[in-house]
Amino acid sequence: MSSIERGRGFGSVLVRLLGIVIALIGLMLTIGGGQLIMLGGSAYYLIVGLLMIVSGGLLALLRPLGAWLYIAIFIGTVVWALWEVGLNGWALVPRVVAPLVLLIAVVLSLSALKRDGGGGKLVWGGLAAIAVFCLVSGVVVAQANKARVMSPVPSAGAGGVSDPAVLKVGADWPAWGGSDSAQRYSPLSQINKDNVKGLQRAWTFRTGDLPDERWGAETTPLKVGDTLYLCSARNRLFAVDAATGKQKWTYDPKVADDQIPYTAACRGVTYYAVPNVDAAQPCATRIIEGTLDGRLVAVDARTGAPCAGFGANGEVSIKHGMGDPYPGMVSITSAPVIVRGVVVTGHQVLDGQKRWNASGVIQGFDAVTGELRFAWDMMRPDITTLPPEGETYTPGTPNMWTTATADEALGLVFLPMGNSSADYYSGLRRPAENEYATSLVALDVTTGKPRWHFQTVRKDVWDYDLGSQATLVDMPINGTLVPAVILPSKQGDLYILDRRTGQPLHKVEERRVPQGGVEPSQRSPTQPFSLFHTLRKADLTERDMWGMSPIDQMVCRIQFHQAAYDGYFTPPTADRYWIQYPGYNGGSDWGGVAVDPARGVIVANYNDMPNHNRLVPRAEADRLGWFPRDDPRYIEREKEAANRGGNLSKSKAEGAGDPQMGVPYAIDVNAGWRVKFTGLLCKQPPYGGMRAIDLKSGRTLWDRPFGTARKNGPFGIPSMLPLEIGTPNNGGSAVTAGGLIFIAAATDDLIRAIDIETGKTVWSDVLPAGGQANPMIYEQNGRQYLVIMAGGHHFMETPRGDYVIAYALPERGA
After folding, report:
1. Which of 178, 187, 321, 434 has the most CB within a 10 Å radius?
2. Among residues 419, 602, 617, 472, which one has the least CA distance to residue 182?
3. Could you give the CA distance from residue 663 to residue 355 in angstroms, rounded to a whole number?
């Protein structure tokens, strides 16, 4: 046998194998497509599946007609895909990329079919199909990744809003949100759109705190004078030189690993200067932080030594009166705020554990002595400090885990409240819980009592707790400056309220929402919708389903039709999965929004992902071994897992098998609605975006996907594609007078500068770990700096780190 004959024989074998592969794929599409049609879905998969079986069979028999048929299938697929989603590049990926790969294989194998006739024509036919696809792809790429500019961005000085804060930001960054108003705005302009490409790393500081699991430091440093103050993942305190990054002092409150709740996070610390005290006195200026084990710790800002006059040797416990909660159940992850000398703190109560978990009581402590000044237990308004001997604060009440906002002038602290323990079931909640949950509460620090509250969700069973810090502005309304508060929400709505009264300054409308679920009598017939602005997108349809190929996209379409979904606020169900969109990660989460008061622009990054959830009956949850962290059965299983070198909660996403003990159902959340095999999300990109909003009108100025695909891909394999896909993001932004937005947050491990007028990225740098933290801006010795914590995040699946990185323009003469 000649070498040519052997080559042809080998080629024929490959064609037969290709035919078998195409036929098998067709069989899968036929089976799934039949199921999809029965559920009321698209007929495409069944039709194409049957045709592919025929095409594959003909190819296996070395018939040229099989190749012609596949070329026709591909052309039809492109036409169908364009009909479904138009020139949406990411939506086209699962519809045409895998079929294109098969088409190329068919074209490359055509030489083996020549002896049966028609080979030359087949080659030209296949090349023509590929050329058409490439032309369409070129148009798609040309349209992709453009920020949609809706209206001109107001120029600086064009009638913006004012910053009402007492703590002013500029050379310093004295509060977690920049200033007490939490606008995350810097008036510095040394770094601007013209020179930002010259940014380079000025210094790097490493905390040395790298938790082995549940990492996610989320830290934003403060800057006061010549010093940065920050905390690490497990609450170690550091002071570093603002110009060099060299450590000045450190203090370790020694938080044990078993106290880590869902994430080892310390978002920030609080700075306080004691009034009317000689600055040379010990603790005349102090740093106060909340710890993962429920303490407030105060140290001297100059030396890091504990403030002996604050509580017991510089610390007080917030857990007094809570009945000795189990480790990890009560944690402070956000910076406390100080109003009129009172340190106000909430705390995280570990989600999903049990209905009667620790109380969500809000407490205020004297910033000098640590003495408890007030306690607000919504169920016990008669308790103003500690509960009577032998009693506790009311278990299971809504908590505030995120960052509050201080209004020194009004004597108010604005509390974005969470939900009652057992987020996804409301039947056992009491009237006060239903009144205050998922509300912004304005607490008077002189009385410890609410002055007003505004609720964003009635009887919340979607884990839509308010995660974003509220932002204060003085808004010009009818020629008068009105003290206002901007309240972002996880469901995407932005509310503008008069911060004196809580009355909306832009209309809020009650609209009817879906009913039913496991507690039909508990569901509110209406919910409040902000008419100012929403980040929420339109309800999902079958066409929004995604994947890496037609097969997993078909699986997602089947799941879509099998699930309960009536749109926004679909009630929880137990007999089948239900779709929650947006999911519990936002909309807007703990990073909050930024405001450019000169331009009058709100900058909001947001998530755009559904969750695929099911309430799990108690007996089934028990069989699955879903028990609270303090349950002896959980503790025993944890010990067994540790002996095997593992951890029960190490890789568990929030809500994925949470027991919710004390109510009839546990909860199983597929966060982001992932396909189990590939790890990709069922909804098509983008999964995150960034938007500029006119503060006066609520109009969208521009909107863009946020986050590249470089660290995302099927099976957890990074694609390294620099294309803007729009990724999940955690953390917020900072804006400057230089016309720039600085932000990390996305899962691509980049920090970037974005032009506030166009939404275009004008500079970026690769971080050594995930940047799930808010950046901050300051000036030292005439030089402007940008600082970001690169600590990574286990939930966002970004690499862990302990890096605090400062950027600046090159020094003159350098």
Report:
1. 178
2. 472
3. 6
Return the pLDDT at 277. 94
The CA distance from 689 to 809, in Å, is 28
- Residue 153: the pLDDT is 75
Retrieve residue 274's tokens: 């004691």
Amino acid at position 351, single letter: D
Q: Which residues of 53-89 are buried (b: 16+ CB within 10 A; e: fewer)?
A: bbbbbbbbebbbbbbbbbbebbbebbebbbebbeebb
Count of alpha carbons within 13 angstroms of residue 648, beta-carbon side:
19
Q: Partners of 527 in the beta sheet?
A: 511
Report pLDDT digits (tens) over 625-680: 999 999 999 999 888 887 877 665 554 677 889 999 999 999 999 999 999 889 99
Greatest extent of the chain over all pairs of C-alpha atoms, in Å: 102
Q: How far apart are the first and last CA of the chain?
A: 73
Rounded distance between C-alpha atoms, residue 220 and residue 224, angstroms: 13
- Let me know: does 350 contact 629? Beta carbons within 8 Å: yes
3-class state of residue 186 by DSSP: strand
- Euclidean distance between CA atoms 72 and 809, whole angstroms: 57
Give the C-alpha separation, 405 to 473, whole Å.
12
Which phi and psi angles does 20 have, rounded to 5°? Answer: -65, -40
Across the range 211-220, mean pLDDT stands at 95
Helix (H) or strand (E) holding 37: helix 3-38
Residues carrying an active site annotation:
463
State the pLDDT at residue 145.
47
Nearest in space to 802 (alpha carbons), one of 250, 263, 211 = 211
| Strand 185-186 versus strand 733-736 pairing type | parallel
| pLDDT (tens digit per residue) in 477-528 | 888 999 999 999 999 999 999 999 999 999 999 999 999 999 999 999 999 9
Q: CA nearest 438: which of 417, 414, 413, 469?
A: 417
Q: Tokens 């000098």 label which residue?
A: 368
What pLDDT, on a 0 to 100 scale, did the predictor assign at position 814?
A: 56
Distance CA 305, CA 303 (A): 5
**Token duo for residue 12:** 């024929």
What is the length of the chain? 814
Among 520, 493, 754, 727, smallest CA distance to 608 is for 727
SS3 assignment for 595-657: EECCCCEEEEEEECCCEEEEEEEHHHHHHCCCCCCCCHHHHHHHHHHHHCCCCCCCCCCCCEE
Q: In what order do the strands lie in the sheet with 237-241?
A: 222-224, 227-231, 237-241, 247-251
Strand 611-617 vs strand 533-534: parallel, antiparallel, or unpaired? unpaired
What type of residue sits at position 174?
P
Rounded Cα distance, 129 and 107, in Å = 10
Q: Map residue 129 onto helix, strand or coil.
A: helix
β 237-241/247-251 pair status: antiparallel
